Here is the input.
Amino acid sequence: MVYENDMQGLRFALEEEMNQDPQRSGGLCELARIGMMDSAYFEPLDDLLDRGAALVVIELDTDLDSRSEHIVGVRCHGRPLSALQLLHRSPLLSNQLSELQVAELYRVYMSQGSYTILTSTKVTFFYSVSYFVREPGQPTSPEMQKVKIRTGDVIELENGPTDFGRVSAVMVHERMVFLVVSWILPTRRVHPRLKLPEFKDAPLFSHPAFQPLTLVARPSLINRVHFAKLDGKVYLNTWVFNVV
Here is the structure.
């Protein structure tokens, strides 16, 4: 355990250095650039929290907004993702939004009833977010469901451009929280032997990626379905059933 904690500390220290100087090269930085620090040996921060590890300082933001009267208690968990971590997820993710991303984000704000001109392009990304959802039509009801979404979760969509999406990150812009979603699109084909429906992972931002938290209003919409890769293709594993 001591060795494991030391290795985690090395990884976090290296990420801080990479944040301060993204052009830094040589030694361990080269290993980080080729993904060696993304080994499964290094646990995600949320998993460290879940098992009670206390080897990093955790920053929790508790005064965040969803622009919905039905969603309260929004909290982002873990340290903000570093520039190196963002690069490994997608070269299109950055703490400074591009002009096209600002335009996309503004459309999401408008869908939530906000028409304020966006003056800041700075954003922060996190591993996960949790919040409580009240029943529609009952904004003052004490009965709520807790929703927690982590990076990598597959979400089932009720009002999206497709039925499924995968959470790439949780993004905060001026205290407003959004999901960054890549879509999982049907190909209308099936596996020749297993008869499983085939899908494909759409590139991030090939479809609108910034989504409000209202996209996932129930915990039952998270990881209810299972996808498997076979022969380099993605299939919906309809052979896996959740226990009722």
User: Anything to note?
Assistant: The longest helix spans residues 2-20. The chain has two domains: 1-42, 57-236.
